[in-house]
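Hi support team,

I submitted a single chain yesterday and got back a structure, but I'm not sure I'm reading the token output correctly. Could someone confirm the output below corresponds to the sequence I sent? I've pasted both exactly as they appear in my results page.

Thanks,
R.
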Amino acid sequence: MSAFEFVFSLFGLLLGFSLVEVLQGLVRTLKLRGTVRVGWLTPLLGLFVLVDLTSFWNIAWAARDDIPANFATLLLGLAVTGLYYFSASMVFPDKPEEWPDFDEWAARHKKQVMGGILGSNLIATAAVLAPRPETWTLGVFAQNGVLLGMMAVGAIASSLAARIYSLKVLARNIEDADHNTTRMLVFSREEARTEANTGRCMTAFLFRVKSVPAALYKALGGFATNGVNIVKLESYLSGAHFEQAQFYAEVEGHPAQRGLQLALEELGFFSEEFKPLGTFPAHPFRRKGWEAPTRGGT
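Hi R., thanks for writing in. Yes, this is the structure output for that exact sequence:
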């Protein structure tokens, strides 16, 4: 029996158990398909662990002639395979029925999985590759760099997202302007009507102008002549042709008001498509936000 066979007669079993952990978790998940949302994060995490396990086995086989059969080797092997087993056992939840969204599980346990894989890679790199410089490859260092990068990913999100996904908040209130606000658009299948007498209203709609000169100028002329204020206008190209632009707009007023009625009629005359999205009460924060000061230097 060679030294490699002696060492991996034990640790080969642990690596095999690691593979079983990932595959068994995948099978449990497939059995619950339709009752839980699997998403992509958890399966990709499992695939990453499987690929890294295979990569480690390949590196160990390439260095088989230089692996001594001694106590230090057994300790290092125990550390590497133990970390692999730890990472593999954290990929899928033991009770998937208790996690209706697997993306949440992956977000909470990604650091443990990646930390275990990174630790095993660093130990294997130091123990197997350091004495044999000819085995050093860019791929080995890139792999560890990817692991470090995945563990150190930052994101701009709300404090609620940090609480949900157990994330560490590095900085708060990083916006350049004090009045910076994220707006959420809520759509419903059934129309939620807003009466014209509810106060100051906003109306949102989509439209696509005709492919003729000055189409946008003519389409928006009715808002100026009827005294309707346009507070938001965004354009984007739709379809495969770069000829006609589609616009998202928000204006002050209610469609029941005469001025906005006339403006929309003129808009429809110069537009190829018009789609109202709805009318909603204007929040007082709109005016407050416009009057908020901006930080110096921005």
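A quick pointer for reading it: The two ends are 71 Å apart (CA to CA). Let us know if anything else looks off.

Best,
Support desk
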